[in-house]
Amino acid sequence: MQAVRFHSYGGNEVLTLETIKEPTPGPLEVxxxxxxxxxxxxxxxxxxxxxxxFMPVELPFTPGVDVAGTVTALGEHxxxxxxxDAVIAYLSPPANGAAAEYAAVxxxxxASAPKTVPLADAAALPAVGLxxxxxxxxxxxxxxxxxxxxxxxxxxxxxxxxxxANRAGASVTAxxxxxSTERVRSYGPDRIIDHTERAVTEALAxxxxxxxxxxxxxxxxxxxxxxxxxxxxxxxxxATTPGPQDLGRGVRMEQVYVRSDAKRLTDLVTLVxxxxxxxxxxxxxxxxxxxxxxxRAFAGGLLGKTVLIP
Length: 310
Ligand SMILES: NC(=O)c1ccc[n+]([C@@H]2O[C@H](COP(=O)([O-])OP(=O)(O)OC[C@H]3O[C@@H](n4cnc5c(N)ncnc54)[C@H](OP(=O)(O)O)[C@@H]3O)[C@@H](O)[C@H]2O)c1
Prior knowledge:
6-stranded parallel sheet, Quinone Oxidoreductase, Chain A, domain 1, Rossmann fold
């Protein structure tokens, strides 16, 4: 089968499309014929090696933490899944990813794929959908009626975060640049701040939010300035640069590290099929475009989710 792999950490040039043996399922694993994987900044971070201390992977490694596809083989002791099932999963490292024609996936990570979107497009949900859900409801404990600021709503996580926060009855202020404004508006926030016009902290000076979600890589000083917009007794959660350890004023500081959660992913799929959560795919590209996608991501050139199709 064809698979993208890297044999050493490095720039996007280490990603090569190779012909390798198809995986066989180990105990408690299934093999999935990949319909799609999607690019996540985490894939690039793993590739560069900056995460090797606390997220080590075995080289050569196949990137692609998201998978959508069809089960083609069952390992020993797998129950509840059958050959032919359409599934999705977030493949947490050190498991190999899904930038390949087939992927071996721990059965415990699987959720049934949504039925209302093309299977490949469903690869745009797992990692970012879970991050958004865990950030909003585990870290921020978001409640109806609360004011939340979502910084970085133009991205994959942000798009789901705005939809889920809106659905939860929060009052949502989202930041987005003009290229993403229309899409973010369609997710129903109360207000959109253009972060290219002036600094978000300047645009919102004097305001406070019950909950603040940081989805943009920034300097510690910028993150501290954003965290200062959190109301007394509120919660600040970052999926990127950590905020100050103690902001005072009773503000709780949280750091988000997404984890696989098949049950929660199944809940998100239910929302998708009920028409209450939209999966938006900006681009669908062949697998051999993956190195170029990593390159464009580095340059800030991706708009929302990019799906790679073997
Ligand atoms: N800790 C975790 O577990 C975890 C999990 C998932 C993701 N992450 C991290 O969270 C971040 C977002 O992930 P993602 O998948 O959503 O990435 P993404 O799809 O690449 O989105 C990033 C978005 O941020 C927006 N942006 C860029 N600069 C901005 C600024 N100065 N102010 C406001 N928005 C800005 C851009 O949208 P516009 O310019 O169009 O507005 C861009 O599309 C990444 O850094 C990722 O590594 C962490």
